[in-house]
Each structure stands twice: as C-alpha cells, then as structure tokens.
C-alpha cells in the first residue's frame, strides 16, 4: 500500500461526534492519527445503529465509519499522570484536533499556549458549535442546532412543513472537512515559518458558508429571503423532481442551451408548440414567472417514460436529468459498481464490513483505508510501550489506576 | 525561515472552472494568500455571471454584478482566452507552466478535447497538482453526463433519505453537493501540496461528486450495504437523542431547534412549568422511554415554545445549559445574530463597480494568519494585461499578436 500523501504527519485527536470525520480524512490520506478516548468508554461507540444490530463497543456503524485508519488509545488526561502522558504525546505531534467546549482543555492545562510551549510550531484545531470567541461561545450545540443557527435548516424541505434536517450529520461533516483543510494550511505555514497557530472552526460558520448559495449577498441585492420551496431551486427554472412511470427523476436547467434542448424534446414527443415560444429562451431569470406552466409541460413528457428512459435519452440530449435514487438503488448503481466505489473492510475475525470508499482519487498517493477503526484501547501497548518507552508493568499500573 | 503573513503565499492556482464546485476552492485559497487566476471566455460565460440585477433589469445580464460571483470568485484575477483557438491553447499552456495547481470542473473529457488533458499538462509542468471535479468522474458508464449539484443530491440518496417520514424526500436550496465537493477538493489539493512540498512529486486528483456525496452518508449507507435495510427516516428526530426537533414559536415561520442530548438534559427541562408533570414520569427518565413518548413530549414543548419568540426560547434554554438555537434565515443571520456580528462572520469586500459588497466569510478560522479578500466584481478579461505581460512576460507586440489572432479576448461582445 502506498503510504499516502500525509505519511509522516502525526496527529492527536480528542473529539466527539462532531470532529471524528476530520481525523478520518487525515488518516485515510496517510497521517498517523491517534484517537484518544476516555478510559470509561467513548460515547460515540454507543451511537446506534449497530453492525448486525448487535450493540457493542466495536459495533457502532457511526464509529466504524468515522474512525477508519486511526489508531486508538485510552487516556484520562484530566488526572496528573494522564496529563503528563498527553504532553509526551504532544511533543511528537504536528497537529492536535479537538472538539470539546471552549476552555475545556485549557482548564486542564492543555490550552494552545501550553501545547505550544511543549512543542513549538504545533497546530491546534478546535471544532465547536459557535467558535472560541463571541457571546455564544459557551452555548451548547448539536448537528440539528448547528443547522438551525447556520441557516441550512431554514431552506430545506417543503414550504408548508417545518424546516427539516438532511439525513446523517451533515453540518458536523462539513465542519470536520473545513477543519481538515484548514489544519493543512496551518501546517504548511508552520513548516515554512516555524509558527503554529490555533485554528478556530465554528460549526455555525461552516454551515453558514456551505448553505450560502442562498445567502446574504443575493438577499442584500434583491431583498428576497430564500425559503423552503420543495424540490426545485428558486433561482433555476425549471428545476425539481418530476414523476415518471416507475419513480421520479430530477431535472436542472441553468444554461440557455439546455433549455433549448429540453423544449425541443418536449415538442417532439408531445407535439407541444407553446414550449418553443422565444419568451422562455435565455437565462433562468426569464422563465421564473412561468415556472408552474413549464413544470406541466415537463411532466407531460416524463410521465410517458420510465426513470431509466428519461435519464438515458435526456442525457443523450445533454439535459441534466438524473434518477432520484433510494439507498437500495445507490448501492447497486452500475456506475459506482464499475468504479469499485464501495469497499470491504475487515471487522472481527471472519466478518467483513461494506462501506463507501474514496471521496477523491489521487493518482500518486491514493486514498486508502489503512486499518479498520480501532477496537477500544487497541493501540495502548504499541503507543505507550513502543513509542513512549513505558515498561509493560508500569502500563498495567496506569490501567489499574484508571489513567489509561 | 520565511516571513509570510498569509498561509498560502507563493502558491499559484489556475482555474478552468464553472459554477461553485470548482471556483469556491480557488476563492478559499485566494483568501488564504494564494494567487488565483481564473480563465474564462466570452464565448461561454460562466453560468454564475448570467445575472440580471433586480434594480436594473432593463440593462440585461451584468456579469460583474452577480452576488454569486462575489461569493465564489472574489479575490481572483480574471483572464479571457479563446480556448477554441490554437494560440489560445498555447497561452493556456504557458499559464499552466507557471502554476502550482490547476483546478477544473468541466464535463468529463472537455479538457482533453481542448488539448489540455492531464497527460499534456503534466508534460508542460511535471510538478503540477491538478484537480478534476465532475458529477460522475472521468470513467464509468455515466462519466460524460451533465449534472448540477441538486442532480447529485437526488442520485446519491441524500434527497430520498432526508425529510419527514410522510414525505418522499427533502431538497436543499443550496445545491449541497457543490459545497461538499469543493471542501473535499480543497482538502485533497492541500494533501497533494503537502506531499509535493516534501517529495517534489506532483499528481492529479479526480473527484466524482456522486461518490463524495454518497461518502457523506457513510453510516446510513452501511445499513443498506451490510443489512439490506435503508435507514429509518427520522425528520428532525434522532436515534440517539429525544426529544429533538424544530418547535414553532410566535410569529410567521419561526422555529426554535431543540436537542435533549441525554438524561441530564431531560432533568434540566423540568425547570419549564409546561414540562413539569412529564418529569414525574419515570418512563421518560431514559432515552428509550422518551423515544416512545416523543409525540406527547413534543406537544408539551410546543405549548412552551409557541408562547415566546424563537430568540427568547433559545436564550432561555441555553441559560439552563440546554441545547437550542433559532432556525435562522439570511436576514436573522446578518441583522440579528449578535454572535456572528461579534465574530465578523460576514466579509466586506471592495467591489470595482459597487464600491463595496458583503459576502459570507471564509470559515477557515486561521487565527494566526487571518485571510483577506482584495476585490470583487472584476469583468471577464479584467486582468489580461497584468497576467499576460507581467506574469508571462509578453511584450507589447506579442500581446497585440495574441489579440489579433483572437486568442486573448479583449472586448466584451454583447451577451
């Protein structure tokens, strides 16, 4: 296996559910990421659903996905002996990623100044609901609340329903991805100047940035507050989900040429003359007031066909029609299969776990799952004895005292 | 040691990009100190530039005024090259020769057709880092298909798996796959840069936005992959927290999002008189009980939220140590959110035509090397002279020849 683009980078990760994906991104690209869990048990190991529906510390699907390629150790750094061990680990690290409330690590003598004193040039990346400063810095947050204050919830779902969350933990994942990118920018700077820094990621702000396509600049210009409007996009006409004989397709028209191709197809199949009216030609803004009428024209076309027919013929005509898939359809999609997207990762003795694979493909240093998510305390001996030079009997003492 | 104020100083990025998924990467890199040059053409103006201002609809499309263009392209330099012209291709190659990074997000195969495929670019610049991002990637049965962000939202299962159980799905208004693939693209490029800084080796990166979006549903897809069972559609509820939801407050379309994270949170909720009687029920002391009885709890919580504004509800709950927040729209965020204001979460950017515009800030949180955006609102080809003469070293005469040949596009024809 190629060691990966980040081979040699050493990372300590002290995160909850909001920051675990940051470490996965770094570890799958080859960084040595050590996840530090409390000796009493890591709460994210208890997040269901579980592999084969059997609960257990090494069976949470969330944990098994978010912690691939990492090593895992246990440590109570709030106690003096644990604190000293953490500082030893910090001395060997380039980056610490954490996602506890602002001031939490500082309270235990592990704030940025202390870490930098131990290891000059270190980068500390903190992922929190509201960031390290400002009047709400101590406010509690979850993925849902981040979506609320960040603005992604307000513009998702049906107009007549309350705002609704996307599946999964999307606001946390975007904060983690931003944190991973920002950490590498800070590491590059540290490598060139010797100066590390504290990276302050606010999940409210990453959510705001991710959902900003319906954001402030446009509103200041046109005074229209973006709202939930169902499946279509307000600014793109036509767009949305359309019924076929056996399911639904999604259509998006942004370019004048795409509209012309769609109008021509509708005309050919349904005999509709009106759809060719020059009134509808040009950029989306020209069609906004005719949205409902155009939706009707399009449905007359799609309802004559299956999803596959609309997808294939639409794409042949360079129109952005795609199927609206269920998860069952996604996992048997021919394109993903041809690209070997889904992968198998060993779990316990004879079991194999299937999961989504590479989010990007580097041709020189490919993404890879380096090892399955660590079992609870799996790398205690390797890290404490092998790397910090602690004698096995001394490690046993630390375990007995509940420090490890 | 180098003294540099901006973290990505010295990195030069050349973009052949469209929409958001490609350009937002360059925008974030420019903010962090990179020099970013975007190649455009008057023949195929980017869809983001097709903006008709509501203040002056009679003026038609005004490419410099688009707020989307500010959001995704501020801080860059803009050159206009006709890539259908052999001399234009020559110029593009000379730019690539001087670049560290090339970003493109055109339809798969489009760059090859122009004669700017990766094997060509790598020969010009062996240390080059390239990113190619498209809906389906460069190979596979759907590789050449046309998609936009919402198409991928539909195809990835994101749309169908999201939303309330009684609905067929939920769609965002923000073309989520564009943003998520841009952030993954930024990270992927920085990985390659880290590798090149240490080994001197360049490489190309391929992103299929379809795959990246499915990867955002990892634990959910694993249920389907390993147990042939789709995830239970929960709306705003959670398998691991109850109650959780968006609760209606006083006013039109006003909601407060609330998460009761654990049993301790539940006890704290007893401070609200409307919830008092429920707190006596031992069934509700644990998660499973509260999940069974969520409807009953939601009713009581709604009675409490409806009697106050969303702002008041969020503040009261947070002061009890509970997790809550106003479901904010753009106006709330910009005008009323004192926290975002204190953190300067919006960026004021000098605009060549309007004077100044406001955009959502870049959330990279680099406290030691804060970024900045120099300008917004440049026209197509605004920086032709600067880039071609100063960077590529074209003489006046050579420059004129490229213009004469139609390779450098100087004038803006009517769109």
Question: What is the fold's blueprint, element by element?
Answer:
The complex is a heterodimer of chains A (404) and B (415).
Chain A (H helix, E strand, L loop, with lengths): L9 E5 L5 H9 L3 E6 L23 H6 L4 E4 L5 H12 L3 E4 L5 H4 L4 H7 L4 E6 L14 H8 L19 H24 L4 E5 H8 L5 H7 L16 E5 L4 E5 L3 H15 L20 H12 L4 H10 L3 E4 L3 H5 L2 H5 L3 E5 L5 E5 L4 E2 L17 H8 L4 H9 L4
Parallel strand pairs in A: 1-2, 1-4, 2-3, 4-5, 5-6
Antiparallel strand pairs in A: 7-8, 8-9, 10-11
Helix pairs in contact in A: 1-7, 6-8, 7-8, 10-11
Chain B lengths: L11 E5 L6 H9 L3 E6 L26 H7 L3 E4 L5 H12 L3 E4 L5 H5 L3 H7 L4 E6 L14 H7 L2 H4 L14 H24 L3 E6 H7 L2 H10 L16 E5 L6 E5 L3 H6 L7 H4 L7 H6 L1 H12 L4 H10 L3 E4 L3 H7 L1 H5 L3 E6 L3 E6 L23 H8 L4 H9 L11
Parallel strand pairs in B: 1-2, 1-4, 2-3, 4-5, 5-6
Antiparallel strand pairs in B: 7-8, 8-9, 10-11
Brief digest:
The complex is a heterodimer of chains A (404) and B (415). By secondary structure, chain A is an alpha/beta fold.
Walk me through this protein's architecture.
The complex is a heterodimer of chains A (404) and B (415). Chain A has helices spanning 20-28, 61-66, 80-91, 104-107, 112-118, 143-150, 170-193, 203-210, 216-222, 256-270, 291-302, 307-316, 327-331, 334-338, 380-387, 392-400; strands at 10-14, 32-37, 71-74, 95-98, 123-128, 198-202, 239-243, 248-252, 320-323, 342-346, 352-356, 361-362. With 404 residues, chain A is of the alpha/beta class. Chain A has two domains: 10-210 and 355-400, Crotonobetainyl-coa:carnitine coa-transferase, domain 1 (Rossmann fold), CATH 3.40.50.10540; 239-324, formyl-coa transferase, domain 3, CATH 3.30.1540. In chain A, strand 10 (342-346) and strand 11 (352-356) form a beta hairpin. Chain B starts with 11 loop residues before the first strand and ends in an 11-residue tail after the last helix. The model of chain B has no long low-confidence stretch (mean pLDDT 95). In chain B, helix 1 (23-31) links the parallel strand 1 (12-16) and strand 2 (35-40). In chain B, the strands form three sheets. A six-stranded parallel β-sheet of chain B has the order 3-2-1-4-5-6, sandwiched between helices. A three-stranded antiparallel β-sheet of chain B has the order 7-8-9, with helices on one face. In chain B, strands 10-11 form a two-stranded antiparallel ribbon. In chain B, helix 1 crosses helix 8 and helix 8 crosses helix 9 (209-215). Chain B has 415 residues and is of the alpha/beta class. Chain B has two domains: 12-216 and 344-404, 3-Layer(aba) Sandwich (Rossmann fold); 244-329, formyl-coa transferase, domain 3. Chains A and B meet through helix 2, helix 6, helix 7, strand 6 and helix 8 of A and helix 2, helix 6, helix 7, helix 8 and strand 6 of B. Strand 12 (361-362) of chain A pairs antiparallel with strand 6 (203-208) of chain B.
């Amino acid at each position: 296996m190629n060691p990966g683009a980040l081979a040699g980078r050493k990372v300590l990760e002290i995160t909850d559910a909001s920051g675990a994906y940051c470490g996965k991104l770094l570890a799958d690209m080859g960084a040595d990421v050590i996840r530090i869990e409390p000796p009493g048990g890591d709460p994210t190991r208890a997040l269901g659903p579980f592999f084969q529906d059997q609960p257990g510390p090494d069976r949470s699907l969330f944990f098994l996905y978010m912690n691939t390629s990492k090593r895992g150790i246990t440590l109570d750094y709030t106690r003096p002996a644990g604190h000293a061990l953490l500082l030893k680990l910090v001395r060997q690290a380039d980056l610490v990623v954490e996602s506890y409330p602002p001031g939490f690590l500082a309270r235990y003598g592990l704030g940025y100044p202390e870490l930098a004193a131990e290891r000059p040039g270190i980068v500390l990346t903190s992922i929190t609901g509201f960031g390290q400063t400002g009047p709400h810095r101590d406010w509690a947050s979850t993925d849902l609340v981040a979506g609320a204050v960040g603005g992604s919830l307000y513009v998702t779902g049906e107009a007549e329903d309350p705002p609704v969350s996307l599946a999964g933990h999307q606001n946390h994942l975007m904060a983690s991805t931003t944190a991973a990118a920002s950490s590498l920018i800070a590491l590059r700077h540290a490598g060139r100047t010797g100066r590390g820094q504290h990276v302050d990621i606010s999940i409210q702000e990453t959510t705001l940035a991710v959902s900003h396509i319906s954001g402030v600049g446009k509103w200041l210009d046109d005074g229209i507050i973006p709202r939930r409007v169902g499946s279509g996009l307000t600014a793109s006409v036509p767009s949305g989900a359309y019924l076929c004989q056996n399911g639904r397709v999604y259509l998006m028209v942004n370019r004048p040429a795409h509209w012309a191709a769609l109008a021509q197809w509708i005309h050919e199949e349904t005999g509709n003359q009106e759809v060719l009216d020059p009134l509808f030609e040009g950029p989306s803004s020209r069609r906004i007031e005719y949205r409902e009428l155009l939706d009707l024209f399009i449905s007359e076309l799609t309802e004559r066909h299956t999803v596959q027919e609309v997808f294939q013929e639409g794409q042949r005509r360079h129109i952005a029609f795609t199927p609206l898939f269920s998860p069952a359809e996604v996992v048997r999609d021919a394109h993903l299969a041809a690209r070997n997207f889904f992968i198998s990762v060993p779990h316990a003795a004879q079991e194999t776990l299937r999961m989504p694979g590479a989010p990007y493909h580097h041709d020189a240093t490919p993404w890879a799952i380096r090892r399955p998510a660590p079992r609870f305390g799996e790398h205690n001996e390797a890290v404490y004895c092998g790397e910090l030079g602690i004698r096995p009997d001394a490690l046993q003492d630390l375990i007995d005292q509940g420090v490890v | 040691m180098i003294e540099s104020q901006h973290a990505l100083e010295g990195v030069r990025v050349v973009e052949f990009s469209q929409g958001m998924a490609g350009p937002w990467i360059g925008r974030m890199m420019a903010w962090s100190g990179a020099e970013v040059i975007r190649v455009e053409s008057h023949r195929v103006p980017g869809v983001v530039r097709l903006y008709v201002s509501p203040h002056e609809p009679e003026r038609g499309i005004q490419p410099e005024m688009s707020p989307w263009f500010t959001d995704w392209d501020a801080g860059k330099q803009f050159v206009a090259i006709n890539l259908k012209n052999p001399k234009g291709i020559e110029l593009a190659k000379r730019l690539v020769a001087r670049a560290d990074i090339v970003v493109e997000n055109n339809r798969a195969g489009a760059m090859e057709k122009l004669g700017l495929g990766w094997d060509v670019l790598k020969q010009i610049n062996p240390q080059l880092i390239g990113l190619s991002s498209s809906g389906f990637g460069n190979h596979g049965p759907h590789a050449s298909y046309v998609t936009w962000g919402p198409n991928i939202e539909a195809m990835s299962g994101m749309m169908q798996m999201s939303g309330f159980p009684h609905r067929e799905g939920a769609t965002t208004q923000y073309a989520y796959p564009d943003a998520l693939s841009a952030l993954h693209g930024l990270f992927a490029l920085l990985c390659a840069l880290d590798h090149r800084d240490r080994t001197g080796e360049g490489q190309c990166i391929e992103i299929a936005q379809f795959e990246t979006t499915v990867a955002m549903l990892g634990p959910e897809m694993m249920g389907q992959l390993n147990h042939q069972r789709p995830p239970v559609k929960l709306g705003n509820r959670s398998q691991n927290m109850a109650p959780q939801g968006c609760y209606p407050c006083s006013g039109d379309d006003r909601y407060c999002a609330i998460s009761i994270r654990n049993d301790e949170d539940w006890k704290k909720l007893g401070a609200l008189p409307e919830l008092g009687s429920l707190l006596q029920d031992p069934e509700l002391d644990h998660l499973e009980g509260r999940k069974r009885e969520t409807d009953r709890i939601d009713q009581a919580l709604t009675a409490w939220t409806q009697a106050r504004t969303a702002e008041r509800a969020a503040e009261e709950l947070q002061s009890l140590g509970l997790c809550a927040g106003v479901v904010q729209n753009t106006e709330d965020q910009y005008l009323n959110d004192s926290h975002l204001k204190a953190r300067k979460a919006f960026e004021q950017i000098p605009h060549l035509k309007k004077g100044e515009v406001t955009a959502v800030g870049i959330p990279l949180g680099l406290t030691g090397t804060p970024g900045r955006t120099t300008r917004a609102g440049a026209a197509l080809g605004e920086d032709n002279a600067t880039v071609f003469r100063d960077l590529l070293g074209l003489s006046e005469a050579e420059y004129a020849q490229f213009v004469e040949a139609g390779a450098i596009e100087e004038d803006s024809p009517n769109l």
